[in-house]
Amino acid sequence: MNYNFLLVICLSSIKYSEEVYPFSVCTAVGHIGVSNPKSYGTQPWTADVSGYDTDTAYLINDPDTAFPCCGVIEEWDAYVEETGTIKFDIWRTTDGINFKLVGSNELSPVTEPGEVVYNVPSGAQYTVLPGDYIGWYTPLKEMMAYTPNITGEATNVQFFKLRPSSFSVGLSLDWSMAESQSGYTYLIRARYGVNQPPTFVNLDAQITVYPPIAIGTVIYTINATDPDISDTTISQLTYRMISGNGFISFNPTTRQVSVAADLTPYVGFQCITFEVEDICTNKDTASLCIFIYNEPPTVKCNPITATVIETTTGNIALTTVAVSDPTDDVTCSLSSTSPKNSPFYLRQDVFDYMIYVNPNPGFRQATRNTYSVYVTCTDRKNSTIAKCDVKILPSAPPKLTNLPGYVTLSTANVNTDPVYAVSVTDPDSTSFNYSMTCKPTLCPFTLYNMGNIQLNQDLIDHTVSGYDLFITVTDGYNSLTNTLTVTISGINVPPKFINLPLESNLYVLENTARGSSVYKVSATDDDGEALTYIMTSFPPTGLIYFSIDSFSGLISTSTLNEINFEAMTDKIFTFRVSVTDGKMTGSQNLVIQIFDVNEGLTFSHNIYRIIVNESLAGTQLPNPGFFVYDNDIVDTRTFRHDCSSYNGYLTMNPDNGMLSFAVDYDLDSPGEPTLITCIVTATDSGGLTATATLSITLNGNLPPKFTNLPMTPALNVPENTAIGSSVYKVSAIDNDGDLLEYSMTSYPGTGRTYFSIDSTSGMIRTSTLNPINYEIMRDKDFLFTVSVTDGRLSEYQNITIRIANVNEEPYFSQNIYRIVANESLARTQLPDPGFVIYDVDIGDTITFLYDCGPNTRYFVMNSVNARLTFAVEYDLDVPGQPTLITCTITGIDSGGLTATSTLLISMRDVNDNTPTFQHYLYTFYANSDSAVGTVLGSISATDADSGQNGQIVYSTDQTGLTQTFFDVSSTGQVILQRNLNGIAVGTILPFTAHATDVGFPSLTGSTSVRITVLEPTTTRTTTTARTTTRSAANKTPISIHGIFFISLVFLILTR
């Protein structure tokens, strides 16, 4: 079939739609076209217009038929004269020449002529813009009615013939070929309404993405719908991204959302706002929220359960904390432990983190054998916690590799000589504590904490021939005890007393004769050597009264000093009796106690005389002056008289010996005697007696008179005055010319022990037997009553003699004293020499002086106790320091008298300097295929001590490594001890090197050593060791050789 389309348009009046009408949006219902098609339906109609009646499209080109706003076609209203199919069309021009069919609603079939109203369904309502025009198309025959020109209605029509196959929405035509007509009004009207806004169909939305994502990757496609059909099929919708963070790009044509940048910085929710707009500028906005997922760090413990021996001292790596994250850098920290505050710490190594044990963790497997360490790793967005377990293994017990052991010493060994070095091995520990017990106890050995046993005294005088030393070593966890048997040869058996000590005190009677044997000490010596006896006394005055024969051991009383209980200050003496064979000495105590003996009485005169006048009974006669000597202190005596046939004349007072007349006595009575002679007896409490004669005369004889008595003040006699010396001559006269006789009594009675009077001359002299010793005399003042008699009458006067103390020289107990002193710092006190200085002057004070010749400057002395102290630091490691110093020690008493002795000081070198390494860090390099025995470098330590104290032994501590890879020679060379195959290139193998001196006790210094594993060498013939050291003076991190080697490797790799 051949169809005509009549396209009706008025070219002369068409302009761009946006120029005809300002763009506006329809907000209410409106109409264009004939105002009321039905009202004009009664007008005649002609179907043929200029010969086109089929396959013709019409366009009403009158401006009144242009849409004024953007809206949709809701209804078509027309009047038709024929039945069939009719299409109501919308045409749009952009340049006034070309028109585009943007909408077409078909009404089919139309069954009868008349008014037809087509309510356009919502899904078929096309959008119109301001300036769009209406038209129609009938494929078979013309159906639209028209009338001649109606005032106020559109009359301009243009029509165009088309092929049916080419007519569809979207068709564009060049209107310069169109035909037009005017003067007719077609009965067609369109009702327009409000254009509906578009709506997003997949927004608001949330999506999740997982970085890393390549830039340009599409992560979402947005879509919208519009109830107005042409908004999506003809005009299309306009999409925009109106907010974003720069990491997202949007293609409004494809509606695709793509990655525009690295998403890592934008982890989390990021919301982007999009806008869709239809042709009428209706809009919808919605959001796309993108959750950018952050992959949390992956954290693994390798191994999950680490093991460590309880003896570890710390700073060792336990387990690797492997961390990975696809996008971020990760930091880790030790967040907690179970139990709390467990001894672990986390440290980042080259690639991963490592869990280490704190220094000195104090593990006790028996108390707790497992720990948990929690490590938190974060990429600053997410965190992951890993639990790493640590199992504590029990330590192996130490082994005493050279015990039980046996060692023989001799009496020639001296203090500080080494005895034995205990050797200990322990696979888990290098630190041990030692202890020792001895059998017999009080052994002469000291065990130091490095296992070295040393003498603590000279053996020259030792008497025990052997000891069992029970050595215990502990590593802090396990203990082991074993025995060292020490035999001492050349023992000199000391002499032994046979009869000392006594079970009780030895009593010696006072008045025992001078030089009398008291006790013979006996001793034996298994070596058959000659014995010598000596003894000391406490108090020292015992040696005034007793002495010992050095050959026989016989103890005797003094040949000079009388043993007088009453005169002696001390009555009990403890003698330390010693016997020596010239090498060894044995000592025992002997206590001698002075026994008080009741001594006889003695009258001061053999004859006493009194003259008395006759008198009545009861009259007391003159005092005869009886004086009775009794050395027994506090003894009592009684008196009695015997006057033969004259007893009846007299009575006597028994307490004082005074006589009284018993009867009246009258010489005028015949036969009364003028001279009565009586025997007077004095009796002490022990029954001992003394007698004297009393002559009683009744006549007028005159008594003698003293010329130089009494005497004041007291007469002073110095102690140590020679025996038998004259002290004082008493003088008297007698007017009757009688011969005079002198005598004297003493109070206290001990004065007679030290002084006597010549009865003829009256000269008082010191005793010829007993020396005057102030310190041992109990009494120092004596009141002597001196009497002079002419044979019948007597005169009595007093004289006081006072013993004056004389300052006497002090003396040391020994001529030579010896001490051994360690070198030390200033103000260190030297050992006590045990100075003993005797001074018989009671209460005297001694001041000490010292003179060590040119070495005096090394010391200061306490003048009170004679203790020496270093004045300066004394160090035998300094050249020229003497090892033996001789000093003269002087003791000065308060009177200026002196005593001297010699002090020999043996200076002993002390191990007081710790070995010091030249550098605190040594770095060496080893190829991974280096041969065992390769010297990797050298370390060096020095010790400021001299002698064996300055000799150094090197060792290593490689407990932080899995195996023992290295050794250090005696010269400090670091030697590869184990093959490095399997050790990754770049691995750093750290260990600690020790330098220990061989002194007692030994001292140890340490340094750090790091071995860096390098690529294997291309040839196995030569290995070059490279060294880096770090010290206070040299902090170069790598040696010149190292820099050259690294540079060479870099050049080879980059070629």
TrEMBL record:
GO terms for cellular component: plasma membrane. Pfam families: Cadherin. Keywords: Calcium, Membrane, Transmembrane, Transmembrane helix. It comes from the Eukaryota. The keyword Chaperone does not apply. GO terms for molecular function: calcium ion binding. Residues 419-497, 500-626, 709-812, 839-917, 918-1039 form the Cadherin domain. GO terms for biological process: homophilic cell adhesion via plasma membrane adhesion molecules. Gene3D superfamilies: Cadherins (2.60.40.60). PROSITE patterns: CADHERIN_2 (PS50268). This is Cadherin domain-containing protein. It comes from Potamilus streckersoni. The lineage of its organism: Eukaryota, Metazoa, Spiralia, Lophotrochozoa, Mollusca.
